[in-house]
Amino acid sequence: MPRRRELRAHREELQRVQVGLVGLAGVLLVVTLANIVIQTARTESASDIAAGTLDSLNGGGQLANASGGNEPLADLGVTPTTEQVGAEPAPALPSVPDLEPDPRLSKPMDRDPQNRQQDGQ
């Protein structure tokens, strides 16, 4: 009987080691694949910049020249261009008056009543 227990314990130890090694190999595989993807993306972006692909995406610089060439935010559509600045203004949005506390309240309502009793209030 003691021999069987030792054999069973040995098998369990081997199984744990095998599971650990498989897990380690899986993590190594995922890290390797992520590294390959990142390297590929870096080399592709570097070759795109070297080949002038970004210029062809911009229409050969025509978009930058159309808006004055000196307004990168206007080129992206974030701010209006100089032609749009002189156009008619946008209608004003209604403003919201400042909120004032209710004059009927005599005590602060932002504290728990039980805590106020403990603080001596």
Question: What's the short story on this structure?
Answer:
This protein has 121 residues and is an all-alpha fold.
Structure, described:
The protein is mostly helical. Among the domains are: 1-51; 57-85, no CATH class. The chain has helices at residues 2-51, 53-57, 62-66, 72-76, 82-85, 113-119.
Low-confidence segments, given as residue ranges, are: 61-67
Mean pLDDT: 75
Span between N and C termini? 74 Å
Oligomeric composition of the shown chains: single chain
- Helix percent band: 55-70%
By DSSP, the count of extended strands is 0
The H-and-E topology, N to C, reads as HHHHHH
Rg, nearest Å: 35 Å
Shape: flat
Question: What structural category arises from helix and sheet content?
Answer: mainly alpha
Strand content: under 5%
Total number of helical segments?
Answer: 6
The major sheet is characterized as:
none
